[in-house]
Amino acid sequence: MNIEELREYCLSKIAVSEGFPFDEETLVFKVLDKMFLLTNITGELRMNVKCEPEKAIELREAYSSVLPGYHMNKKYWNTVVLDGSVSNQQIEEWIDDSYDQVVNKMTKTKQNELRNWKQIK
After folding, report:
1. What is the pLDDT of residues 102-118, one digit of tens each?
2. What is the radius of gyration, based on Cα positions, of the chain?
3. From CA 84, how far away is CA 89, in angstroms rounded?
4. What share of the chain is helix, strand, coil (3-state, %, to 5)?
């Protein structure tokens, strides 16, 4: 998966925005202002995604390209090196899981707002 495919997939999800809140090289994707994915736009392509703590450890043990989340809470975040060693389908599943992790932690008000987004789309 390349940066264009990653960006397109993230933006295809409901209520997602993108921006550069930290610096000019770290692209951040948010669902209703809550971060679910970060990626670099220069150098070796990597993404940070949120994950359940037990699953985060399992993925790190199963895949050499999955590392503890760089500059993130390593209990909940993984960094995935997008070097072609993992299928696009698997990457999309991890993105979906990260998105869902963030949505499930939102307040009921925010979750209702997301439901309204889905009805509009």
Report:
1. 999 998 988 888 887 76
2. 14
3. 12
4. 40, 25, 35
